[in-house]
């Protein structure tokens, strides 16, 4: 039975998030977009193509005139304008017009890049998200943030462009590496910490089933996380205010991701950034040290890093890197802190000294289990 969530805003845009256990029903969901006479280009990466391209292509073929496929080398390093350019060239060569459709089959890298091409090619064509990583199923496929990195700066060039449909199959979680599964847990724990303490506790209580990738429990994770993110982006799709709460852990997380030269997965850096932000929240007396310690244990349970010890990161360089991210507004850094576990707020008063102290604290621990 498909689980379905609706995303809408003032009648301006609306799409469904469908969570299934296989790709078998994808061909039944797409026709609602009136694609019968259209061409569809499936955009995917070199790791996902051998796993899922054939079955997804079979489904997509049922609901359009012609299917093309564009495969690019996997990895964050390829989430850039060079890859977008080769995709534009491909679409031009195949005569894609404004009514044709793109399908992003893959993780957040494919989704962000394909969505950005969808936002800009011919000033915008429709795209469908078929997320295949835990991270993309709970986070990146929803909300319409699309974009690419520029000179290693995360997501520096992009556009808000909503997908026409999100179709996630939990079956794809079984082929993910341990590291990539853990990375998704980084964003999931973030969702609990910023918006829903009960969810955070539920995640901790179901740690064994989650680690074993019990797909029923994973489905619950996907649905609750999607609901949390949906509720935020419906109210503030272009991040004028509340949406920035989803950036909890990303101010320092993005800087660490860049300085580690993308050797760590996105969700791993988010986990480190969340801990540093939680530490600052505790120093300011809003949450307790015991709660931070509990968070450290929670991230570690999901095999996420909880210390930067041995990473060779210089706190001053990390702080410098935050200044070139999108978190700067009118010269002040936009930071997300916890008022309490399950409630975040945007703070513009975090000082460099606080960040430096938090980064030193983060380097002091260990990743030994
Ligand atoms: N747009 C947003 O709102 C948003 C939100 C969160 C993260 N992001 C972005 O998403 C990206 C991270 O996404 P990600 O974690 O999905 O990484 P990813 O897309 O790089 O995928 C991780 C790795 O897993 C492989 N893979 C994908 N699906 C697989 C499967 N089912 N089985 C086996 N291997 C598979 C990929 O080829 C890749 O090597 C980052 O660029 C981040 O900035 C965007
Ligand atoms: O959707 C959002 O908004 C988020 O902030 C979700 C984040 O997990 C995601 O990594 C996002 O891409 C970060 O946004 P950015 O604007 O800082 O690049
Ligand atoms: Zn993120």
TrEMBL record:
**Binding note for cofactor:** Binds 1 divalent metal cation per subunit. Can use either Co(2+) or Zn(2+).
Q: Which InterPro entries match?
A: Dehydroquinate_synthase (IPR050071), DHQ_synth_AroB (IPR016037), DHQ_synth_fam (IPR030963), DHQS/DOIS_N (IPR030960), DHQS_C (IPR056179)
Enzyme category, top tier: lyase
> Record's Pfam families?
DHQ_synthase (PF01761), DHQS_C (PF24621)
The pathway noted for it is: Metabolic intermediate biosynthesis; chorismate biosynthesis; chorismate from D-erythrose 4-phosphate and phosphoenolpyruvate: step 2/7
CDD domains hit by this protein: DHQS
Q: Which GO terms describe its biological process?
A: amino acid biosynthetic process; aromatic amino acid family biosynthetic process; chorismate biosynthetic process
**Cofactors that this protein relies on:** Zn(2+); Co(2+); NAD(+)
Domain 3-dehydroquinate synthase C-terminal positions: 184-328
Positions binding Zn(2+) in this chain are 187, 250, 266
Where found?
A: Cytoplasm
Write out the residues that bind NAD(+): 108-112, 132-133, 145, 154
Where is it found, in Gene Ontology cellular component terms? cytoplasm
> EC number(s) on record?
4.2.3.4
Alphabetically, the GO molecular function entries are: 3-dehydroquinate synthase activity; metal ion binding; nucleotide binding
Q: Which UniProt keywords apply?
A: Amino-acid biosynthesis, Aromatic amino acid biosynthesis, Cobalt, Cytoplasm, Lyase, Metal-binding, NAD, Nucleotide-binding, Zinc
Q: Which reaction does it catalyse?
A: 7-phospho-2-dehydro-3-deoxy-D-arabino-heptonate = 3-dehydroquinate + phosphate
Domain 3-dehydroquinate synthase N-terminal, by residue range, is: 70-182
Question: Into which family does the record put it?
Answer: Belongs to the sugar phosphate cyclases superfamily. Dehydroquinate synthase family.
Describe its function.
Answer: Catalyzes the conversion of 3-deoxy-D-arabino-heptulosonate 7-phosphate (DAHP) to dehydroquinate (DHQ).
Q: What is this protein called?
A: 3-dehydroquinate synthase
Q: What is the native source organism of this protein?
A: Brotaphodocola catenula
The organism's taxonomic lineage, starting at the top: Bacteria, Bacillati, Bacillota, Clostridia, Lachnospirales
């Amino acid at each position: 039975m498909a689980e379905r969530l609706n995303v809408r805003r003032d009648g301006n845009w609306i799409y469904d998030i469908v969570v299934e256990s296989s790709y078998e029903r994808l061909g039944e969901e797409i026709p609602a977009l009136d694609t019968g006479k259209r061409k569809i280009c499936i955009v995917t990466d070199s790791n996902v193509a051998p796993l899922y391209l054939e079955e997804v292509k079979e489904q997509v073929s049922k609901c359009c005139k012609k299917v093309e496929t564009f495969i690019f080398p996997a990895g964050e390093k390829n989430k850039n304008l060079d890859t977008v350019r080769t995709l534009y060239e491909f679409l031009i060569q195949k005569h894609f017009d404004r009514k044709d459709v793109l399908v992003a089959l893959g993780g957040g890298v494919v989704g962000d890049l394909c969505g950005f091409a969808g936002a800009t090619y011919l000033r915008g064509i429709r795209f469908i998200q078929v997320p295949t990583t835990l991270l993309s199923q709970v986070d990146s496929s929803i909300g319409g943030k699309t974009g690419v990195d520029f000179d290693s700066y995360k997501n520096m060039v992009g556009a808000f462009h909503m997908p026409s449909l999100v179709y996630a199959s939990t079956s794809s979680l079984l082929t993910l590496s341990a590291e990539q599964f853990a990375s998704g847990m980084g964003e999931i724990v973030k969702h609990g910490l910023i918006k829903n303490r009960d969810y955070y506790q539920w995640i901790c209580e179901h740690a064994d089933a989650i680690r074993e990738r019990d797909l029923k429990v994973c489905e619950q994770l996907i649905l609750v996380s999607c609901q949390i993110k949906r509720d935020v982006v419906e109210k503030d799709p272009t991040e004028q205010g509340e949406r920035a709460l989803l950036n909890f852990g990303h101010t320092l997380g993005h800087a660490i991701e860049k300085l580690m030269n993308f050797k760590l997965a996105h969700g791993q850096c988010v986990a480190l950034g969340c801990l540093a932000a939680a530490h600052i929240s505790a120093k300011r007396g809003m949450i307790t040290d015991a709660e931070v310690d509990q968070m450290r244990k929670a991230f570690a349970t999901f095999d996420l890093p909880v210390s930067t010890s041995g990473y060779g990161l210089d706190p001053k360089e990390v702080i410098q890197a935050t200044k070139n991210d999108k978190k700067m507004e009118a010269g002040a850094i936009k930071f997300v802190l916890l008022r309490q576990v399950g409630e975040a707020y945007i703070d513009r008063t975090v000082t460099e000294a606080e960040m430096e102290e938090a980064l030193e604290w983060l380097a002091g621990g260990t990743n030994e289990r």
